[in-house]
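Morning. Coffee machine broken again, so started the prediction first thing and wrote up yesterday's gels while waiting. Chain of 95 residues, entered below exactly as on the submission form.
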Amino acid sequence: MGVKEKPNIVDIIERKRLQWYCHIKRMQDERLPKLIMKWIPGERRKRGSPRKTWMEGVRAAMKTRHLEADQWLNRKEWCLGSGRRLQLSQDRKDR
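Came back before lunch.
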């Protein structure tokens, strides 16, 4: 019996972030989550080091997984690149 490797929390967060990004991109333009994703606040940020935005995190996750911006159009390709297929196959093996 082999030792099961625990998933890295950062990888899990990135995978879920990419899944949500793809879900929002496929939504109709009138839906609230899509409108919020496109919204740019009018106020300036406060002093100090700027925090990363949600989209900056998505872009970084896409870069580490070698995904292109328009790749979400092909759902199977996106699932393979975001790691979802790997997760599904591992879940089925554990059963």
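Residues 9-36+55-94 form one domain. Going to sketch it on the whiteboard this afternoon.
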